[in-house]
Amino acid sequence: MNQPRNVIHPRDEIMRTMDRIYRYRMTTTSGGNLSIRDSAGNIWITPARVDKGNLTRNDIVCVHQDGSIDGLHPPSSEFPFHKAIYETRPDINAIVHAHPVALVAFSISRQTPNTRLFHQAHSVCGKVGFAPYACPGSEALGESIAKMFAQSCDSVILENHGVVVGGSDLARTFERFEAFEFAGKTLVKANQLGEVRYLTDQQLKQAAQRGVDFESYDPGVASAKEQELRRQLCDFVRRGCRQRLLISTEGSFSARVDGESFLITPTQKDRELLRAEDFVLVDGDRREIGKLASRAARAHQTIYQKHPHVQAIVFAHPVNATAFSATDVPLDVRTIPESYVFLRDVQRAEYGVQYGNDGGIANYVSASNPAAILENDGVLVTGSSVLDVFDRLEVLESTAEAVIDAQAIGKVSVMPDSVIEELREAFHLK
């Protein structure tokens, strides 16, 4: 399915994207810059010395091909390296430069994140490079960065500086930037746990080849229940993105409509920007006409078929819980009563089971084990409603973060069997 035409003006697209980057705390008030090269060859870029948390469309600067400038402010001092990248790579039409904490950590330790941590990160981030230091705003910095992009790199760590990513348009570039930062943050956390496991060529190929083979159909008028579930999914997916439990290119959320049908997130659409009408109705081997269901739709369907009590499912990649998925360290949630009551004992599924056609993924969850860690692919959470699943996802991520943080203080002390038994009786747990 082709991408729709972009009809948003560069001023508005840059302003909205910078607002999102700042809101996600992936840059500071004075740090970072974005640009778009339009079809006429003009470069639209964020201004110099203007609060990145309070940009307006009129703050965005246009630099024409002849070097003349339209705008209320001078262009970013980093304009030279934007220009150098565009001259080097005709396929790149948008650039994001910022100083997100995890990627800055890699830049000051002179390393690059290994995106083989996850198939989606490896696919979205493209080839990764490292550009030697040069003074900010200098022609030398432009040459250093452009050299890496000339070698087909798409995501480049700048030594003692930050990161630059490029893409075909600003939406794809933001997704690349976000996925790169997600991989970096997860690696920082995973390295605190133990040895990190990376995906082989065969495993990456296995993930890339999965797909769904639904026929399209017209489901007719939506019931009130379907309409309400669409609203709930839309609200909670957006909340998940803003709380960094989901990112724009990762994760799938679904809700059962009736015995055979369910709503699920679409593929190839920014999760935070989803509208109620974007969710896809799946019924047996059919999916709603004109829409593409998530590539995880068959895995969701298998779980619904095996477990009638499950009414909602999420596959997600919150950083701390996902760090456990990239190591062999088990996540023991017997830490505080809430964690155990909500999650019970979290299972671990070997890599790729969710891509299989044998329905094996459904064996890793049950009424007494509603959540599972998926090796090198985040987490799976099930529940009795959209709210129930989201609540459990929050508890799972909070528990994982607390366990990782506790290891910096001392030995993690889990609740003994006697306390667990007391909780099981008090809360009528199976």
Write structural notes for this entry.
The chain is of the alpha+beta class and 430 residues long. It folds into two domains: 10-193, Class II aldolase/adducin N-terminal domain (L-fuculose-1-phosphate Aldolase, 3-Layer(aba) Sandwich); 214-426, L-fuculose-1-phosphate Aldolase. Helix content is 37%, strand content 16%. The protein has helices spanning 10-23, 79-88, 101-108, 119-125, 139-150, 170-193, 201-209, 224-242, 297-306, 319-325, 337-343, 386-406, 417-426; strands at residues 33-37, 43-45, 61-63, 69-70, 94-98, 128-131, 155-158, 162-167, 215-217, 252-256, 261-264, 280-283, 286-288, 312-316, 347-349, 371-374, 379-383. The strands form two sheets. Strands 9-13-12-11-10-14-17-16-15 form a nine-stranded mixed beta sheet, with helices on both faces. Strand 7 and strand 8 form a beta hairpin. Helix 3 crosses helix 6, helix 6 (170-193) packs across helix 10 (319-325) and helix 10 (319-325) packs across helix 12. The relative contact order is 0.09. The mean pLDDT is 94. Keywords: Lyase, Metal-binding. GO terms for molecular function: L-fuculose-phosphate aldolase activity; metal ion binding. InterPro entries: Aldolase_class_II_sugar_metab, Aldolase_II/adducin_N, Aldolase_II/adducin_N_sf.
Question: CATH homologous superfamily name of the largest domain?
Answer: Class II aldolase/adducin N-terminal domain
| Count of DSSP strands | 17
Our measurement of the CA-to-CA distance between the termini, rounded to an integer number of angstroms, reads 45 Å
Gross morphology: globular
Percentage of residues in DSSP E strands: 15-25%
Task: Predict the CATH topology of the largest domain.
Answer: L-fuculose-1-phosphate Aldolase
Number of domains: 2
CATH architecture title of the largest domain: 3-Layer(aba) Sandwich
Keywords: Lyase, Metal-binding
EC number: 4.1.2.17
GO molecular function, one term: L-fuculose-phosphate aldolase activity
Pfam family, one: Aldolase_II
